[in-house]
Design goal:
There is one protein chain. Helices cover about 60% and strands about 5% of the residues. Helix 7 links the parallel strand 3 and strand 4. By secondary structure, it is an alpha/beta fold. The protein is built from 26 helices and eight strands. About 40% of the residues are buried. It starts with a helix and ends in a 7-residue tail after the last helix. Among the domains are: about 200 residues, 3-Layer(aba) Sandwich (Rossmann fold), CATH 3.40.50; about 70 residues. The strands form two sheets. It has a five-stranded parallel β-sheet, sandwiched between helices. The protein has a three-stranded antiparallel β-sheet with strand order 6-8-7.
Length: about 550
């Protein structure tokens, strides 16, 4: 190589450098990278893309990795990256920074004498013919109220930035924008950046990240304990594959069990976020909401993973307003709170179930922590949530057991899967508060049966029986007997005959105490089926003669 060629080669090698460091390495995102590349390269008018995702989705990490990878593989020449987390970059500052790297020092200095608009046009002309990459990250700050977020731009400065980006549209330089919000201010009619909604990590990548975190913090021993492994799986599912909450919450497992962290997360306790990183990430967006909407959003604290909208959310609001403490807050606008949560990147429409909104995985934790010193409101919200899901459980069960309508059953399975965390939260509230559990546990059992989640189905009645209050009324004794029947029925299907026998015997004793001869006969019939499976045919025949003629 000639000396100029050598200089160019080593300058580029120095510019590319090493892969951007992340605490646990860059995990997953292969499909996301392919999707982004396809969008910005498919035609000349698609060179600008907004990567939109909720707080903690990993937008900044993905943009930094793309910049490094594209430069290393020769797709782009230079990278110009500006983050509004660092400062309020104006169009003039961005223009000057780019120009200083594309022009000689003399030409750069001479350009300072031109008007600001002319300088922007000059830089656009420099970028359009060549394949560079321009990144503007954390764009949600641009339109924030300056008092709330210090890196906002005034409306005139926003207009200048919009003009600069419009001049690059259709050129060879690629433009990637990162934000929690839709940034509709950048769009003129049909002209504007495309949008790529960034989800959490896929299950395989999330599992790999979890393994890396556990290994780093010497917490892999939790995987050998079946109960703690189950709690870890639930904890991982609850965090939704989002890198920020995974990397904040899971290191705590160095000193706490997964079951303890899971309880802290559900209750909004400080143990799940000792450094306050989750709280600060959510506060950034939460602080942009109108104070009235912040109050309404707080009352959505009992929801986990998803929040229903439309008439179901209206039902919840009506249930809330039956409580004096909630009425004392004044008018509520839960629909407006959900809409604004979507707008500021704390939630997103559910990709499969139209009536649901998918919450940022740690938003419920944040809201519960805010309610920790307001026990009356928290109790009111939890009670309304339980009442709502008691009603919804019957509807879901009808859908799951619909005869002659496969589409209805499929829709019911999709909705039950999405609502599973809310249903189990309502069940836990019922168990803790001594409320009826059968409507909720029945739909959960039906869903788990259809989904063939046999281990979870086994644990469901066992958990309910263990947590059930000492029954004091006949209705409670009847419900507890039903739980033992459900546990026995599940054990019989799974051929755990000793467990089935124990459950059905307990069911029989409870029904004998009630003096209900008809249901007592049904329990004896269940015992007959266990005896038959154990090849004790005399016992089976005796029991079945005492019971109704149908299987348990």
């Amino acid at each position: 190589m000639t000396e100029p060629e050598q200089a160019k080669f080593y300058n580029r090698k120095a510019a590319v450098g090493d892969e951007p460091p992340t605490e646990y390495g860059f995990v997953g995102r292969d499909l996301d990278i392919q999707s982004v590349e396809h969008h910005v390269l498919k035609d000349t008018g698609s060179n600008e893309l907004l990567v939109r995702g909720m707080a903690g989705a990993g937008k900044s990490t993905l943009l930094a990795h793309l910049a490094w990878w594209w430069q290393r593989t020769g797709l782009i020449d230079q990278v110009f990256s500006f983050s509004y987390e660092d400062r309020a970059w104006t169009a003039a500052q961005i223009t000057r920074e780019i120009r200083s790297r594309l022009l000689s020092p003399a030409a750069h200095a001479a350009a300072d004498s031109m008007p600001e608009a002319a300088q922007a046009e000059q830089v656009a002309d420099l970028l359009r013919p060549d394949r560079h990459l321009l990144i503007l990250d954390n764009l949600e700050s641009v339109t924030a109220a300056p008092a709330a977020i210090p890196h906002a731009l005034t409306p005139p400065e926003q207009a200048k930035l919009k003009t600069l980006l419009s001049r690059l549209r259709g050129g060879r330089t690629l433009v990637l924008l990162g934000s929690r919000e839709p940034e509709s201010w950048l769009t003129n009619g049909a002209s504007g950046p495309g949008t790529y909604p960034l989800p959490g990590l896929d299950p395989q990548a999330a599992s790999l990240l979890v393994e890396k975190i556990l290994d780093r913090h010497n917490a892999a021993h939790h995987l050998t304990d079946p109960a703690e492994r189950a709690a870890l799986n639930e904890l991982t599912d609850l965090l939704g594959g989002y890198p920020l909450p995974l990397t904040v919450v899971l290191p705590v497992l160095a000193t706490l069990k997964p079951s303890q962290v899971l309880a802290e997360l559900k209750q909004g306790g400080a143990g799940a976020d000792p450094a306050g990183l989750i709280t600060r990430a959510i506060e950034y967006s939460h602080g942009k909401l109108d104070p009235t909407l912040q109050t309404s959003l707080l009352l959505l604290a009992p929801f986990t993973a998803v929040i229903p909208t439309d008439t179901i959310l209206d039902m919840y609001q009506e249930l809330l307003q039956q409580d004096d403490a909630v009425r004392a807050l004044g008018p509520l606008d839960l629909t407006g709170a959900v809409d604004q949560a979507i707008a500021v990147g704390l939630a997103t429409p559910h990709p499969q179930v139209g009536y649901l909104t998918q919450a940022q995985p740690v938003l419920p934790y944040f809201l519960r922590s805010r309610l920790s010193d307001r026990p009356t409101l928290r109790a009111a919200a939890s009670c309304a949530h339980y009442q709502l899901y008691t009603q919804l459980a019957a509807t879901l069960h009808d859908m799951l057991t619909s005869v002659g309508d496969p589409q209805q059953r499929t829709t019911g399975q999709t909705a039950a899967r999405a609502e599973f965390a809310n249903l189990t939260a309502a069940l836990d509230h019922a168990l803790a508060d001594g409320r009826p559990v059968n409507p909720i546990i029945t739909v959960l059992d039906e869903y788990l049966d259809q989904a063939q989640q046999h281990e979870t189905r086994r644990q469901l009645p066992d958990h309910a029986i263990t947590a059930y209050h000492q029954p004091v009324t006949d209705d409670q004794r009847r419900e507890l007997a039903q739980l033992h029947y459900l546990a026995g029925h599940t054990a019989l299907i799974q051929y755990r005959l000793d467990d089935a026998l124990s459950s059905f015997e307990t069911e029989l004793h409870l029904k004998q105490a009630l003096g209900d001869r008809r249901s007592e006969a049904a329990a004896r019939h269940s015992l007959g089926f266990v005896a038959r499976e154990r090849r004790r045919f005399d016992e089976a025949e005796t029991a079945c003669r005492q019971g109704p003629r149908h299987p348990p």
